Amino acid sequence: MQEGSKKAIVAAFTANLGISIAKFVGFILTQSAGLLAESVHSLADTSNQALLLFGSKRAKKEANSLHPFGYGRERYFWSFVVALVLFSMGGLFALYEGIHKISDPHETDNLAIAIGILVAAILLESFSLSTAVKEAQRIKPKSQSWLKFIKSAKQPELPVVLLEDVGAEIGLLLALGGVITAHYTHNPRWDAVGSISIGVLLIIIAAFLAIEMKGLLIGESALDSEVASIRTAILSHHATKNVIHLRTEHLSPDDLLVATKVEFDHSLSVHELSQVIDEIEVLIRAQIPSAHFIFIEPDIAHSTILN
């Protein structure tokens, strides 16, 4: 895991732990459905940051005969689990609490306390979000949109933290709006509406994360620009005649597998061919340092079906 990702996770963990405690105390004092939904949401976020750190630690295990390419996909797996936790502990609970309060409405007590806790939580979440944004900007191309970055990033931690923090900020504003509206209209169902809105928001975010993490877990190719750089590196060698086909797959955010069939100069001896392949591997890694596993098969173009 890159240092920036770890820094963003630790900042989010610290902020969410403090926020979840404050929100739960606020719920006890105010009986606000929105605050209860938000306290469970923050507790889920706190556990999610712990899961991301756990996945990062697991991914560092050495490769063995059972897992010859290592355990890098642990980071993708635990990021997928994060989406499930966000869906169940965050989204479904918020929906349940909101629906329950609609059927059994009661006034929110201590409005000032509820507002104070929510405003403080917004400030803490803003700190967490700004840290995640700052660290993401170190690796995000300036011309790339944030949505494109989240969808194309091979490192799962920063997109997860970014989406969680954005969801938390919006959720806090919904909870704040629900509490204030319920108080001044004397209709506690508005607080319930805030809780239901938070639930829907979290379910949408969780579903988006699950889809993105599933793609990484199954295996995604390198970015188009990286594939083009690999192809260029292969063709740059004077002994290369043609790249017959090229396949890439991320085994982890930092480990790329490259498999290719290449047509070389037919006059090369076996010894010369072996040297050329070694030289091409060096050229590829010079362009893409994460290409730790490279398999180059010499072939003749007309004998290959794939193109």
UniProtKB/TrEMBL annotation:
Per the UniProt record, the lineage of the source organism begins with: unclassified sequences, metagenomes, ecological metagenomes
Q: Which SUPFAM superfamilies does the record associate with it?
A: Cation efflux protein cytoplasmic domain-like, Cation efflux protein transmembrane domain-like
Record PANTHER family: HUEL-CATION TRANSPORTER, PROTON-COUPLED ZINC ANTIPORTER SLC30A9, MITOCHONDRIAL
Membrane-spanning residues where? 76-99, 111-133, 192-211
Question: Does the record bear Membrane in its keywords?
Answer: yes
Where does this protein chiefly localize?
A: membrane
Q: Quote the NCBIfam families the UniProt record gives.
A: CDF
GO terms (BP aspect): zinc ion transport
Under Pfam families, the record lists:
Cation_efflux (PF01545), ZT_dimer (PF16916)
**What's in the GO CC field?**
membrane
Q: What is this protein called?
A: Unannotated protein
Keywords recorded for this protein, A-Z = Membrane, Transmembrane, Transmembrane helix, Transport
The entry's localization annotation reads:
Membrane
Q: Where is the Cation efflux protein transmembrane domain?
A: 10-212
GO MF annotation list: monoatomic cation transmembrane transporter activity
**Record membrane topology:** Multi-pass membrane protein
The Cation efflux protein cytoplasmic domain covers 225-296
Q: Does the keyword Cell inner membrane apply?
A: no
